[in-house]
# Entry
Amino acid sequence: MIKEIENNQRTESYLFPTEFADLRIQQEKESAIRLKKRKDFLGRYNYLIRLMVIFYLKQGYDVKNEAIHKALRNYISDRLGLGETNSNLVIYTRHNLKYN
# Structure
């Protein structure tokens, strides 16, 4: 899995190696537990971000904060297999809910 991440050009822009994954995984799990209780779209969106971050941390990588939505778009499309159109729709919907 790590080789696959390292060889994927799209992930290089938002992932970086980390040595402190255990602490971050615990923090993200605690946050995910709180967010799982929320039933609104933004709560679910943030929950999905936590799951994605945990996934990458378990691979030895962390996600750059400034590229979290780009990372999520690719995660939804590639890892969850929902395709580029659906991943763009999720990001677009989040943006509209948050800023309109």
Observations:
- The CA atoms of residues 18 and 61 lie 5 Å apart.
- The longest helix spans residues 41-58.
